[in-house]
Each structure stands twice: as structure tokens, then as C-alpha cells.
Amino acid sequence: MSEKASGPKPANKGANKSSNPVNKVFIGLAFLLFVMVCIAYANHFNNPFQYDDGHAIVNNYYLRDLKNIPLFFKDAVTSCTYAPNQIYRPLNTTLNAIDCAIGGKGMPVPFYYHCSIFITFLILGVFIYLLSIKIYNVAFQHRLNPYIALLTTAVFMLHTATSETINYIYERSDLASTLMVLVALCVFTYYKHLRKYQLYIIPMVLGLLIKEPAVMVAPFAFLYMFLFEENLGFNKLFSSTSLKLLVKVAPAFVIAAVVFLFEQQMSPSRWAAGSYLATSADAERIPYLLTQPMVMIHYFNNYIFPVNLSADSQDWEYITNPFDERVVFPVMFICFTLYLAYKASLQTKTRPIAFGILWFYLALAPNSSIIPFPEVIRDLRTFFAFIGLTVAVVWALFLLYTKYETIISKNAVLRGSLIALMSIFFIAHTYGVRQRVKVWSTEESLWKDVTEKSPNNGRALMFVGKDMMERGEYKGALDYLTRAEVKWPTNQYIQLNLGVLYNELKNTAKSDQAFKNALQFDPQNPDCFAFYGVTLISNGRIAEARDIVDRGLRFNPNHPDLLKMKAQLSSMGNVKSKLETLEESVKLHPTADDYINLSVEYYNNARYADCIHAAEEALKLHPDFDLAYSNICAANNALHDWDKAIAAGQKAVSLSPNTELYKNNLKIAYDGKEHSK
Questions:
Q1: Can you give the pTM of this predicted structure?
Q2: What's phi and psi for 57, nearest 5 deg?
Q3: What was the pLDDT predicted at 5?
Q4: Do 117 and 171 form a contact (C-beta atoms < 8 A)?
Q5: C-beta neighbour count of 21 within 10 angstroms
Q6: Helices (H), 140-230
Q7: Cα(203)–Cα(191) distance, rounded to whole angstroms?
């Protein structure tokens, strides 16, 4: 039986008698939810760091000492090692440093990060319940409201789409800032008499120092007062009452704006997503905005049927025509949902639906408006927004239930069917979460999943190629990496992986060129210097390695890999490079073998003319030296001097007919000449 919206009726003896069993059922269901969440995420605690975790956590030297925490509030460079992602979120960096310290190993350990994130997730569930029960009770007093609020919490926490944020350590900022939004709103709604002290602004500011979407506390607070305290519909939105309510929450708006602008000033100009106020992306603002309605349809689809979740949808492109059906029909759908929110706001009982729909769109606004981000779409962005959508959907279904409550209560088949449907829903989503946990369990499985969802995703192709390279499958790796390069020709990490791969394939010229491309595309990225430095050291190119490492440390003085290489190079003292040593050896004791070794090293350093000259010197001392002819053939192949390559290759094969290396070099020469015609 429902009660008036003005407040709960006085307690009576009958109610007290029935409260204990109800409480026991509620506690039992809450415990069942806890168990199901634990089952869903049981296998995620040892999942590795993925993707952006590398530069934000693994290679972030600043996290390894809690004494650096004050520095986090002074310099955004401490947030990560990758300049375009360096943004002022000092509390998020602090959380990462604390989890690093808890691990007790002097370096980040994924397990402790996952534990911290999971505990935060459970706490978030408590505050979702508290906010839900508050607005449900104001809208419509009903004996089942506590269970409906618990159901709302369960739907969100066990929803498959929610798992993307929980699995990805780098996105803990979304979880933590969302928690602060919920804390702020609970303080605002439960302690009305304390609003004059503006206490709810404290968690809002903390949330802003974790991630920017916490600015939405102020508009959410306004919506709550408008819908649930003033009992008004959106037909009264432009009234004097609205103005009075805006004045009441004005301190939150002002402080949010001040903190937000301060963060923009503290974030380096190199930050790729902008500064939100950057003008460099002005040309992309309208195309980005035109694409977002279709993106929102994708998000709605993920909420209803989350089978296309992807860690990276980088292959989505801008829609530039405002009359494109991918703009027109999604805009019509959005207008329809906003109309539903408008209609729902006109009745007290249905206002949680209006609140939830507006929450969804406001939560997406920072990423889905005229502010262009590097990725047009990202499934991870819906974590905050799906809380509102869950409130709207669950409350709408509950109101539908109350309409037929009497019929359902008298029909055992209907009751059983309803329970069965709910059980299937939660079992399916628990299974879905476990599947997404499995996808995130290795780099290989994560990016294989992305390539299946987004076959034209250059970044995903790169990661699959990288994994194949690490397994020694060089042919397949080259295929994936070259395909990735076609899709994303200016990406520095694709070039870095190509550099490593070509080095493994002993193609020094292409390896060097790929590393140089990476440095050209992203000249301040320490990873470019680190990867190149490792390769140079492995090839004995010590002097070049010193130069590269020193250049990298100028941009990031605390990069762990660069510091390690610096120490390694320092321990070598003035040790000469392999090439320098061979050159001196040939001068002192010239032998055919020494000239051949020098020839090979010249080839490895892409000095093909010198390679040929050294091989010719070897032939003066040993006229039938088959390896010398082979080196001349390989060097001329690199220079595309096919006739000279063929002549030398034929001589090498005639001297040693069964040597595969010689035959392969000769084949390359023949093929090169054929293709050049």
C-alpha cells in the first residue's frame, strides 16, 4: 500500500512487529548482492596493468615515494610519464602512490590497486543506495522502496558495462570522482539544516582534484531541490523559484568553476585532450559534436545489451554532415528521451525518472559536447552516467509493477516469472562481468577482443602485433604492425614497435628509420628515447645510446627505464662501441675475418657503402671469401643497386651452393630488379 508523498506515517505496534522479518530479508538480499559482486570480480585481482597504466603507474617514478605527494599538488608532470596525458589530478596521483606504498615492494603491484579499487566500488554501492532511497521516498512512499533502492544498486554494480571501469586501473579516477559526487549529494540531501555551512562542497572539491566530472555536483543539487523539495516540474523551470534555487547552490557553481579553471592552468599545454579551453581543436568542435548523438545511441545500446563493449573504439570517425541519418535519427531519439524526462517531471511519483535521465546526459556532457577528445567514443565514459540511467529504468519498472501489484500478488505464476526474470538478468550480467574480467586478464586477450569489435582500430592492431613479436612470430607481427601503420601512420608507438621488430629481423636501416619517425611524431615522449636506447645498447652503439638517453632524460628526468640505462651506460665508462673497436682492430691487425666482422657491423649501422668497402678489403686478403660476396650482395640490395647485388650474389652462391643466406640474398636481388622494371 502506498502512502502520501509528504512523509512516512507514524510508527505503530503492527509495523514494529513486522519490521524484524523485513529487515532480515533486506539484510539477506544485501549480503547476497555483496556475494554476487565478489563472485563477479573474483578473478580480477591479479589482472595486469594495461595500456595507459604503463605511463601513469608502472613507469611513474614519482609514485614510488610518498614524500612526493606534496609535489603532486604543485606539478602535473608527476601524474604520468607521457606528456600528452599529463593533467592536474593530484588526488588521483596520490591514490596511486598510496597503493604503490601498500604493496611494499618499491614498485607498483597490480593486486593492491585492484583491492583498493574494489573496496572503493563497494563503498560507492552504499552511497548509490542512500541517494536512491532518499529520492524514492520523497517521490512515492512505498513499503518496497528499500528493496527498490537495493535493486538499483545491484543493477549498477553487476551491470556488465560497469566492469570496464573496475577492470582498468587507470580509470580509477572515474570511480573515485563518482564516489565523491555521491558523497556530496548525500550530504546535501540528508543534512538540509547544514547547507548554510556548504559542507557538501568539500567532497565536490575532492572529487574535482581526482577528475573533472565532479563539477556536476552543483547542477545535480539544483535538480534535486527543484524536483523533490520544491515539487516542481520542468514546465516551471524558468520561474522565480528556479532563480532562488540557483542562488542557493551558487557557491557550489562558483567554487567548481574556480577549481576547474585552476586545474586547467596547472595542466601542461601538452595535454592532448586539451586543456578544455584550448583553441587548437576548434576545427574539430562541430564534427565532434555532430558525432556524439550516434555515440549516445551506442551507449544506450551498451546499457540494454552490452555485448559490444570495447576497451578502445579508436576507429570511430567524425560525422561532418548535420543532415546525415546518423545525426538526425539519434537526435530525434535524444529529444524523445528528454521529452519523457519532461513528462515525468510533471508528477511527483515519476520524478526519479526525470532526475535519472537528466543525470545521464549531464554526466556525459563533459565528454560528449563541443569539447573534442582524442577518442570520439569510449565505453568507459558511461560509468558515471549509468547511475542516473539505472535510477530512471529501475524506478520506471517499479511503477509499472505497482500498477499491477494486486494482480501479481495473487498469481503465483506471475510472481515466479518475475523472480525468474530478475534471476536470469543478474546471472547473465554476473557472467558478463566475469567474461570482461577474462578479456582484461592479459594484454593479448584485451587487444584481440578490440580487433574483433573494431577491425580497423590501428592501436589494437599494434598491440596484437606487439604480442606476436614477443612470442617470436615475426612474420605475423610485421603483418599486424604494417596494417596498423596504414590505419594510423603518425602514431609513435606503432613506429616504436616497428623499430623493435625490424631490429629483431636484422634490418637496421628500417629499425633506425622507425625510431626516428617515432621521435619526429612525439619528440618529448620518454618512451621513444627508452625503446631506441635499449636497441642501440643491444647493438653495441654506445655513443649513440648515450646521446638518446641523455636527450630523453631532459624531458623526463625520473623515467625509470632511462635512469636504468643511464646507470648501465655510466658503468661502461669510456668503453668504445663495437663498431669503434672493430675499426681499431682492423687498423692494427688487418685480417679477412676482421674486415668481414667490420663489414657486418657497418651493415647493422646502415652504412652500406662502408660495408661493401670492408668486404672488398677482405677479398683482397681472401679472394674466394664467400661471405664477403654475400655482404656485398646484401648491401647493394639495401642500396637498390640490383645488378651489382646479383653479380656478388651469384659469386657467393657459386662458392657455397648450399648456404640459404646466400641464396636468399640473391633472390632478393632478382626480385628487386624485377619489381623495378
A1: 0.79
A2: -130, -60
A3: 39
A4: no
A5: 9
A6: 145-158, 163-167, 172-190, 201-208, 217-224
A7: 14
